[in-house]
Amino acid sequence: MKKSLSICLPIILTVLLFSCSEPSSKKKAKRPNIVFIMSDDHAYQAISAYDTTLIRTPNIDRLAQEGMLFTNASVTNSICAPSRAVILTGKHSHMNGKIDNLSPFDTTNITFPRLLQKAGYQTAMFGKLHFGNNPKGFDEFKILPGQGDYYNPRFITKDGDTTITGYVTDIITDLTMDWMKKRRDTAKPFLLMYLHKAPHRSWLPAKRHYPEFTKNEYPLPETLFDDYQTRGDAAKTAEMGILKDMLLKYDLKVPEQTLKDLGISERLGAGGVNRLNASQKAAWDSIYEPIAKDFLERYPSMTDAALTIWKYQRYLQDYLGTIAAVDENVGRLLDYLDAENLSKNTLVVYTSDQGFYLGEHGWFDKRFMYNESFKTPLLIRWPNVITPNTTEDEMVQNLDFAQTFLEAAQVEAPKDMQGESLMPLLNSEKDTWKRDAVYYHYYEYPAEHAVKRHYGIATKKYKLMHFYYDVDQWELYDLENDATETNNVYNEPEYQEIVTEMKIKLKQTREKYKDSEALSNQYINLYKEKGYIE
Known about the structure:
Layout: H1 2-26, E1 33-39, H2 58-65, E2 68-70, E3 73-74, H3 80-89, H4 93-96, H5 112-118, E4 122-127, E5 140-143, E6 154-157, E7 160-163, H6 168-182, E8 190-195, H7 210-213, H8 233-237, H9 242-245, H10 256-262, H11 278-298, H12 304-339, E9 346-352, H13 371-374, E10 378-381, E11 390-392, E12 396-397, H14 401-408, H15 423-426, E13 438-442, E14 454-458, E15 462-467, E16 473-478, H16 496-512, H17 517-529
Parallel strand pairs: 1-8, 1-9, 2-11, 3-12, 4-5, 4-8
Antiparallel strand pairs: 2-10, 5-6, 6-7, 9-10, 13-14, 14-15, 15-16
Helix pairs in contact: 6-12
């Protein structure tokens, strides 16, 4: 017995040694930090990684150069609060209940930050949430009430409200950096939601930017004077036209006195300019008063076309000026991650809550399923996982973020989440990605901007949309041959086979996501009861 044991002992020790050491090679990868950066209404056309025509955004572009740029990222419902609810819950609007900016958010919804917090992540949110004042799943938050203000903004915190003097984009970053430097628990992975107000309407740039940007002149979009000839009532009756619906005072900073001198009356106020303190106002007036004086002299002789172009230029000057501050501050955060050696195990996302019209089709704002508002910028950096300088054209949505973050953090996603984790694409395992179409549904009508209710489906080749409630109209676009979506081919004979195929796919997709005509009518009746619509 002793001899047998002495012979076996080296073998036993060897087996034990290998059995103890083997798990280290199979051990789960270290869970990444997650930094989710989202701006409000940031058009992909206004990021130079997508298009250099309008602005240079070198810091946001870094995420594309060092990571992945998505060219077919879209939203499920192009309006602020519902988009954010989709991101948090991983569910379409009809499933999470936040269908528009009017409806309350059901706080019993399970959100990915709550799951990450439960799984040991330290969580923080700074900036614009846009609904609620006590976000669930965050160890610390400082959020703007509602839309928030560009200058001297008020913030909601766990310890009460506070007003901070300065420019909102800088302040949100200061709060974020302060948390990173002073209260981040280095023993835990973290989820940081860094959420900008800019470039949301009414587009007040920082002092350092408006002297430069108000002098810029931008090329006119091809469809600035679109006549909507082949489209239905929705495009023709929407109230988001630069000429008729963009306000001189609220949007374009023409002072009240100038409007009085011209005999013009408008429904909205100064768009946040009234929050400037004395020194801020003096700097503002030094730039914007000469612009108003020039407008006063030119306005009486302006044609509609000339006024449209003047408004377009003023709009872009301020809109893009606010983005300059976003880009600078994104750079501050990225530099900090690099300096603290955090970048290599931090998944960084830059996106917007939806796209935005920068004069295309003569519009500003969003809401439609047409590309400029339907598509959204998406850039993701994750060193040692994502191959740098990669472009991805697969169809992804804001619906997918929750499951992506949960899988990255090795947390099981709830079965009722409706997105698809982007991990196969991030891991260069594209062959396993099966989605060939995405679904969209917009509800907020009648309401501001008067964009009719509609739902639809998009593939890489075609887009089918159905407008309903007070109309029953369909539109089909051949995206490969009509990039500007100006030619509705729904009734063209040569496209009838495509119409049939797309309607079948739409029906299947609605069933997959549990949407239906009955549910649409249910929401309509609910909002009639609440008095939101007649």
